[in-house]
Every structure is written in C-alpha cells, then in structure tokens.
Design goal:
Shape: globular
Number of domains: 1
CATH topology: TorD-like
Order of helices and strands: HHHHHHHH
Radius of gyration: 18 Å
Number of strands: 0
Helix content: over 70%
Oligomer: single chain
C-alpha cells in the first residue's frame, strides 16, 4: 500500500481486525528471529489465516509473492523430513548465533552506521532499552539484548495488542497514542536497519526458508510503515 493510497473509513471492528493482522505477522517475525522453528510451528505457519490471506488478497504484489515463497519454503522443509529440519536449525545458528561471528547478527547496534566502530551494546541498544523501559517492558532473557530483531518485533506485537485493548475500551486517545509511538519506533529503529539485515540474509543464507523469510520481512515492514501513516491520517 503506497502512501498515496487512502484507506476507506473503517469501523471499530475493522480496525480491530487490521490490528490483529498486524500483531500476528509481527508475532511470526519475532518467533523466527528468536527461535529455531519446530515442526509443529512450521505446520502452524502453513495454516496461518493471515499469511494465507496476504497471498490471496493483499494489494501489493511484492508482499503477496514473498508470502507465497515463504510458505513454499516451509513446505519444502516439511517435505524434506528430519534432515531438512536439522539443516534449518544449523542455518539459524550460523546466521544469528555462531560459533564465531554470526553471518548476519540480528542486533541493531551492529547495523545502524557503517562508519562507526560497530559493537554490541552500542548507542542503538541504549536507545531501544530506554524505549522499552519507558513503555514498562523489561527483557527477562539473559542471553539476548534489547536491540535484537526479535525483541523489537515483540515490542510491535505487544503494543499492537494494547492498541486493540484501547479500542475495545473506547479509549480513542490511548489507541492513537500507541500508533504514533509505533510509527516513531518504525522510523527511528526498524526501518533504519532491518532492511539491511534482511538484504544480508538473502545474500548470505544457504536456506530458501531464511531467504524468503527475509524478503517477506522487509516488504512487510515497508507496508506497515505506509499503513500506519494512512491510519493516522484517517484518524
């Protein structure tokens, strides 16, 4: 959806459906960046109504095609049996964990500025940590940092669910404020580095699953940025 397009006037029920769609897609992005996919999770992805709805009716071809390619890669793993699943877990480790420097480290601090000395717990980490603290969100895991892609997507998921709660309580101001913060977070954080990370995954991954997931991720967050602008303009 381009910025030039306008959303129709939506009812409260339609806004809630749109928000639940966004929350579910952000949940998928969160999970795949944070965890090796289990067979059960991959089977659930095949049945996910929001992913399938994107393929069927979403207006932007790039997002439709990338969602279709992603689910085809999911089916490829499931058809490949246990060896294909183990290979996917090994690729997750190689891309995001190591041993040694991961091929595509999923931390904002390592991507935000090509001219800085990149390091874990850099300036981006401080900003994201403070943002989450201001929102009352505390990271419990001791093995990852706040500027991990999965945690940033979790923030978008959780705050979208809160926006649904605001609508259900008829708190229009609270609802709008959450969307304003999400737009700011997208612009100041996710958009500034996730595209670079996803491009690197496409280039360096040996797995059609992670390549197609990276394409889907970058097209979705671009679409979501435009969608948020249109929602706020309508409100």
């Amino acid at each position: 959806m381009s910025e030039e397009e306008n959303l129709p006037n939506l009812s409260e029920k339609e806004y809630i459906s749109l928000l639940l769609f966004r929350a579910q897609i952000y949940s998928i992005l969160r999970n795949i960046f944070l965890f090796e996919p289990s067979r059960e999770y991959l089977n659930n992805l095949l049945q996910d109504r929001f992913l399938n709805k994107i393929i069927e009716v979403y207006p932007e071809k790039c997002l439709r095609d990338s969602a279709s390619d992603f689910l085809e890669a999911v089916m490829e793993i499931l058809r490949g049996g246990e060896n294909a699943l183990i290979d996917t877990w090994a690729e997750y480790t190689r891309l995001f964990i190591g041993p040694g420097p991961p091929a595509t480290p999923p931390y904002e601090s390592l991507w935000i500025d090509e001219h800085e000395a990149r390091r874990y717990k850099g300036e981006a980490w401080l900003k994201v940590r403070d943002w989450l603290l201001d929102e009352g969100l505390i990271l419990e895991s001791q093995t990852i940092l706040e500027d991990h892609a999965g945690i940033e997507f979790e923030y978008m998921m959780v705050s979208t669910i809160k926006a649904v709660e605001m609508l259900e309580k008829n708190d229009r101001t609270g609802f709008i404020n959450i969307l304003i913060k999400q737009k700011k977070f997208l612009e100041e954080h996710l958009i500034t580095w996730i595209i670079k990370l996803c491009d690197a995954i496409e280039q360096k991954s040996h797995s059609s699953f992670y390549k197609s997931f990276a394409r889907f991720t970058k097209y979705f967050i671009k679409e979501d940025e435009d969608l948020l602008k249109q929602i706020l303009n309508n409100l």
